[in-house]
Hints:
With 107 residues, the protein is of the alpha/beta class. Helix content is 26%, strand content 21%. The two termini are 24 Å apart.
Amino acid sequence: MHTTASDDATPLRKWAKPQKALGYEYIALTDHSKAVTVANGMDEKRTLAQIKKIRAAQERVPGIRLLAGIEVDILKMARSISVTKSWRSSTSWSPPSIPTCNSTARL
């Protein structure tokens, strides 16, 4: 799920309680990384601040686990990913994303 930290209209504080009421045991909050500039992608500093907010929110909403992550873009031209290893190690998980600018014809 994305939050207002990148391109969603739902603030972090409004994600957990409704999902808990629906019976979810966990949710993953994975805003865009810096590679997706059109979606207000987050750099390392903003990501670390968002992770702190997610962990603080976890204290206020027991009974559902909030996973803090970043959506990692696979960069075609650089043959790399959009975040560093130390950056990824700060997150609960980092799902990969193939940006629309990359051709998916070979996948």
